[in-house]
From TrEMBL:
<dbReference type="GO" id="GO:0016602">
    <property type="term" value="C:CCAAT-binding factor complex"/>
</dbReference>
<feature type="domain" description="Transcription factor CBF/NF-Y/archaeal histone">
    <location>
        <begin position="1"/>
        <end position="64"/>
    </location>
</feature>
<protein>
    <recommendedName>
        <fullName>Transcription factor CBF/NF-Y/archaeal histone domain-containing protein</fullName>
    </recommendedName>
</protein>
<dbReference type="GO" id="GO:0001228">
    <property type="term" value="F:DNA-binding transcription activator activity, RNA polymerase II-specific"/>
</dbReference>
<dbReference type="GO" id="GO:0046982">
    <property type="term" value="F:protein heterodimerization activity"/>
</dbReference>
<dbReference type="InterPro" id="IPR009072">
    <property type="entry name" value="Histone-fold"/>
</dbReference>
<keyword id="KW-0805">Transcription regulation</keyword>
<keyword id="KW-0804">Transcription</keyword>
<dbReference type="GO" id="GO:0000981">
    <property type="term" value="F:DNA-binding transcription factor activity, RNA polymerase II-specific"/>
</dbReference>
<comment type="similarity">
    <text>Belongs to the NFYB/HAP3 subunit family.</text>
</comment>
<dbReference type="InterPro" id="IPR027113">
    <property type="entry name" value="Transc_fact_NFYB/HAP3"/>
</dbReference>
<dbReference type="Pfam" id="PF00808">
    <property type="entry name" value="CBFD_NFYB_HMF"/>
</dbReference>
<dbReference type="InterPro" id="IPR003958">
    <property type="entry name" value="CBFA_NFYB_domain"/>
</dbReference>
<dbReference type="GO" id="GO:0006357">
    <property type="term" value="P:regulation of transcription by RNA polymerase II"/>
</dbReference>
């Protein structure tokens, strides 16, 4: 995040006569960058689990929920919904200056709060599978008779 943006945000919350040291600005810049990387890495991991490449705002909200940042979900969800409604209302403005239907700007763009994420390491490693089911699959019990149905076949083995 650019240092000018950080300085502007810091000045909003500090009294007008307060001065901000350069070291303080750099420290906040480092913390903000680390926080963004932390949340983005979690969102990327959630996308990877769903076999998707694009991280959406909903993925970031779900990542924040899984990281325990629940206090921020409701305000960020409200902000996202307002932003999308505002963005879509601009798309509905015609060349003559007339606006489109009043409700069209918000239809279908409500973002619900993300579901609670996996809480234990086992849930995170195995997804919805319990460790017993995962072990059953790994041992490949009840193998079929096809060419890939042999008991030596491990679908989770890396190539």
């Amino acid at each position: 995040m650019p240092i000018a943006n950080i300085t502007r945000i810091m000045r909003r919350v500090l009294p007008s006569h307060a001065e901000i040291a350069d070291d303080a600005k750099e420290a906040i810049q480092e913390y903000v960058s680390e926080f963004i990387s932390f949340v983005t890495a979690e969102a990327n991991w959630l996308c990877h689990c769903d076999y998707r490449r694009t991280v959406t705002p909903e993925d970031v909200l779900a990542a924040m929920a899984s990281l325990g940042l629940d206090d921020y979900l409701e305000p960020l969800t409200l902000f996202l919904n307002k932003h999308r409604a505002e963005q879509n209302s601009e798309q509905f403005v015609r060349q003559g200056g007339d606006a489109g239907p009043p409700m069209a700007s918000t239809m279908g763009y409500y973002v619900p709060l993300p579901p609670s994420a996996a809480t234990t390491k086992e849930e995170r490693d195995f997804g919805d599978l319990t460790p017993a089911i995962h072990e059953y699959i790994l041992r490949n019990h009840g193998c079929g008779e096809g060419s890939s149905g042999g008991c030596e076949f491990d679908p989770f083995q890396k190539f």
